[in-house]
Amino acid sequence: MKTSELREMTSAELETKLQNLKEELFNLRFQLAINQLDNPMRISAVKKDIARVQTIIRENELSENAEA
Fold it and tell me: 12-18 contacts: CB < 8 A, separation 24 or more?
């Protein structure tokens, strides 16, 4: 996921995306535990996507506070 795509999303869309990524990370970790994970690098990619989404959410919060 690219940062530019995330910046175009609304706050509600970002929250939904964050929830979906956390669910995906949970499922990947579960698959890893039962030795059914095909691509272990996907875990680190999902973690980075979660961090990107959280960063954009925080930037939006700070910009809203600066305007007020």
Answer: 14/53, 14/56, 14/57, 14/60, 15/57, 17/53, 18/50, 18/53, 18/54, 18/57
